[in-house]
Structure formats: structure tokens, C-alpha cells
Amino acid sequence: xxxxxxxxxxxxxxxxxxxxxxxxxxxxxxxxxxxxxxxxxxxxxxxxxxxxxxxxxxxxxxxxxxxxxxxxxxxxxxxxxxxxxxxxxxxxxxxxxxxxxxxxxxxxxxxxxxxxx
Length: 117
Known about the structure:
- There is one protein chain.
- The protein contains seven helices and no strands.
- It has helices at residues 7-18, 24-30, 35-46, 50-68, 73-79, 85-96, 100-116.
- The protein has two domains: 1-48, Orthogonal Bundle (Arc Repressor Mutant, subunit A); 59-117, Arc Repressor Mutant, subunit A, CATH 1.10.10.60.
- It is mainly α and 117 residues long.
């Protein structure tokens, strides 16, 4: 992804990094643009759609939380911005080819085995 030149997009990226649960509407209000104008500007400046970028950030954050905490999967889904755990599960499976529970179990198994070596 190219680095955005527009100061508004830099603010949007900082906000997403701090709070991946923000919606496109929240981000648009933050920089005083319409949702469609923000989405268009984001795509033009970065080459990636804002929705795709948000989804990737949310799922990466969820993966970090699954790896490093014991927080319930349902709670993680809410923390990263999914309002329906089933939507989170579907998006996570599409990105990582594993359910969140299987991802967590697999990482735990790898950690245990690496400690035994």
C-alpha cells in the first residue's frame, strides 16, 4: 500500500491503528468527509479499498489477541469491530483458512511443542 499524501488519510490510518473497531462512518466524521468521498480518496491514495483495509487490520488484531490472550472469541470479535460473531468467524476463516478457535488451538500447540524441544 502506498503512503497516503493527504493529511486526512494519515489521521484515518492513525485512528484505525488505535481503534480498529471504528466504522467508515466514524472515520468520515473524524475527517469531515462523506463516507463515499473518504472511501474514494482512500482507494485513490492507497490502492486498497477502505473496507478491505479495515477488515485486514481487524483480523490481524484478532489473530494477535487469539495468540496472546485467553479472552473469549466472542469478546474479541466485538473488540475488533464485528457486531456479529458469525460474521467475524466467516471473515476469519476466509483470511486464515481456520476458525478462530482452531487458530488459537494451533498456536497454543506450537507454543507448547517449542517449549518441549
